[in-house]
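Supplementary Methods. Inverse-folding protocol.

Structures were first reduced to a discrete structure-token string of length 93. This string, shown here, constituted the complete conditioning input.
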């Protein structure tokens, strides 16, 4: 399992969430397992999404797709900050 973290500013969180939710089936088809959406405590339109994915390669292919580019042009302000992480350890307490 791997993680992709995406941080970006959106024009409207509510509009962003509708567009994001519409891509659920496509993300699942590209190996997305789950996600957590976080909003900045002082700026609710600054969004961070932690994606758990099966494969970074598949995640990168999806992220470079026309579908994602088109969706991001509808309300994402500026380029996203994206971090790709390989799992080193996961523990539950």
């Amino acid at each position: 399992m791997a993680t992709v973290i995406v941080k970006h500013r959106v024009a409207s969180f509510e509009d962003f969430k509708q567009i994001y939710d519409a891509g659920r089936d496509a993300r699942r088809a590209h190996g997305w397992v789950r996600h957590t959406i976080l909003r900045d405590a002082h700026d609710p339109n600054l969004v961070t999404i932690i994606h758990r994915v099966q494969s970074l390669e598949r995640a990168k292919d999806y992220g470079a797709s026309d579908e994602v580019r088109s969706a991001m042009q509808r309300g994402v302000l500026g380029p996203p900050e994206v971090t790709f992480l390989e799992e080193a350890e996961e523990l539950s307490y």
